[in-house]
Amino acid sequence: MFKTIDIITSGLVAQRHRMNTISENVANINTTRDAEGNPSPFQRRFVTFSAEKNAEKAVGVEFEIQKDTTSAPRRAYEPGHPDADAEGYVNYPNINLVTEFVNALEASRAYEANIVSFNTTQRMGEMALRILS
């Protein structure tokens, strides 16, 4: 039973990190500069999941936060913007608010499913203890 709770917990932690990553993307949807103040649009982040393995047995969920380096920045014509290039275009992060919203809903549902699994496992353990006593 404890192994099951460990697996569920790793899923909860992974989905929490996914939600944090999505929040970071939404917060930086209009960020045109990097941490040093140089004109460089924020790069969207996403989370990938894999089965955590221990001696060839799955024992949980591993996650990795990665940057989306393949998509080009969104360009907007704003000649008065301080980060506009010589042609008057500003490079914004290629973040789609609808996509991020859908990803947030999916992560939220996965988190809820893990909570239901945890509660079910807990009830099964309580019932087993009642039977044994």
* Number of helical stretches of at least 4 residues: 2
Total count of domains: 1
Percent of residues in helices: 40-55%
Placed side by side, the strands forming the largest sheet appear as 1-2
* Radius of gyration, whole Å: 21 Å
| Counted beta strands | 4
- Separation of the first and last Cα atoms: 18 Å
What order do the helices and strands follow?
HEEEEH
Unreliable sequence segments: none
Describe this structure as you would to a colleague:
This protein has helices at residues 2-27, 97-132, and strands at 45-54, 57-67, 74-77, 89-92. With 133 residues, it is α+β, with helices and mostly antiparallel strands. It is built from two helices and four strands. Helix 1 (2-27) packs antiparallel against helix 2 (97-132). It has one domain (2-132). The radius of gyration is 21 Å and the shape is elongated. The mean pLDDT is 91. The strands form two sheets. A two-stranded antiparallel sheet has the order 1-2. 47% of the residues lie in helices and 22% in strands.
